[in-house]
Structures are given as structure tokens and as C-alpha cells.
RNase H type-1 domain-containing protein (Abeliophyllum distichum), 254 residues
Amino acid sequence: MASRCQCCSAIETIQHLFIDSPTADTVWRHFADIIHITLRPREGFQYRFQAWRFSGQFVSTGHIRTIIPLLILWFIWTARNDAKHRDIAMEPRRIIWRVYHTISLLHTGRLFRHIHWRGDMDIAPIFGVIITTPSHPPPTLVFWRTPPVGSYKINTDGCVKDRESDSTLAIHCITKGGGPWHIQATIRHIRHLLALDSDTITHIYREGNQVADLLASEGWDRRCYHEYSSQDLPRRHRSLVQIDRFGLPTVRGL
Ligand SMILES: [Zn+2]
């Protein structure tokens, strides 16, 4: 036997309860107006989901335009159950308030990230959400320093793309200790070799080690052994060597 809707005298169907009923319609309209989405009356709720998802340029999983429809459906459902089993009237205002409240809780629990509001930053304050853009450290000048007279400096760079943090970590393991147990024997051996000639190792940002960085990325592209002499060094490499020789800085973080 078909049951009667909890908000009006219509027959309760999924389509009526979640989309067409006056209660559902008021709730959907409230949020559609904020996000500037045009609702097509009586559309199936799968179509409505898709309409919200494709309404923004940057919508991905977890984006506010996918979360709001889910919350609307969930709180319509709980309001319907409250009306049916606890005799609490179905109020669009209460459903709307619960959607706001849950978004605010998700924000406080840090479950939203910057990308979840991408393209919709202007409406975030309506939900009590303050989005701070990730801050980048200011640019710094990086120099290649000439070694003291009587000593040599070997510039190296691993032939691995975009893994500067790995070399920082390796140097930390050698100079300060730590690192996984299975490389401890190797680390002890490196320390022993360094101590023999009182050698030191330091980390420098790739911007301050441009020649080695360029050679390393060339090695990555070629995947074969190649050696340059000072005569056949390409112009680009030569100009980077000159920058180091003259002690000119390069900028990191622009
Ligand atoms: Zn109804």
C-alpha cells in the first residue's frame, strides 16, 4: 500500500520526497540560488546530481557542489523519518539549517581542503568557512660558493627527477644519524671515508647547483654515458659555469 507523504497529501515516492515535494523544492532552491544553479523542475535526482557536478569548472570528488546535494538528500530523509516516527513536522528551514551546520562541522574537522572550494571561494563565508590560500615562502637568493683555497668541491646531483628532499634526507642521515636500518652499514662506511680526509658534505638547493642539476637532468633524458670536456661543453652549461665563477646568485621560489 502506498503511503502518504509526510509533508503534504501526495503519495510518497522517491521522486516526490527528494525532488518534487514543496519541502524538497524549497531546500534545493535555497542552495541553488547561493551557488547560481538553475534547477529543472521534476528532474530525476540522478540528473540533478549530475547538473550540480557539471555546473562548476573545478568540481572533483569532495567539492562543495557534490557535498551539498548529498547533504540535502540525507537531511530530507532524516526529516521524513522524524515526521513519520517521532511526529516532528517536516520543516524546510530545519533541513537547510542542518546542511549549513554539517558543512561548518566538516570545515572545523578539517575535512575540506582548498580544492574543495575551488571556483566557489566567494560563497565559502556564507557557510562560515574561511579559506586561506596556501602560503609560499618568499623567494630567496642562492649562491654557489667557491671552496677555500687548497680544497676541492665536487658538485653532485642524483639522476632522479624532482626528488630534492631525498638528497636532503640522505645528508641528514650521514651527518646527524638516523635513516632505515638496512642502510646503516653503508652510512657507517661513508662516514669512515669522510673522516679519512676530513671531507665535509653539505646540501645545496638545486638553484645553487645549476650545472650539476642540468647534467643530472640531461643524464635522465639520454639514459647513456656521455662525457664533456671543457672544450665541447654546450653554451648553456658554459654560461651556468660562468654564473658560479662570478658568484652571481640565482633565485629560489619564484
Ligand atoms: Zn509531500
Observations:
- The CA atoms of residues 86 and 92 lie 17 Å apart.
- The radius of gyration is 31 Å.
- Strands lie at 140-142, 250-252.
